[in-house]
Amino acid sequence: MKNQTTILPARLAKSQVPQVYQAVAPLYNLWGGLTERHARQRCLDLAQIQDGEHILEVAVGTGLLFEQILKRNPNGQNEGLDLTPEMLAKAELRASRTGLTHYRLRQGDAYHLDFEDDSFDLLVNNYMFDLLPESDFQAVLKEFQRVLKPGGRLVLANMTKPERWVHGFWEVIYRLNPAWMGGCRGVLLLDEMHAVGFQRTQREYLSQLGFPSEIVVGYKLSRAS
Question: Which of 61, 80, 146, 206 has its CA 20 to 30 A from that of 55?
Answer without folding.
Answer: 206
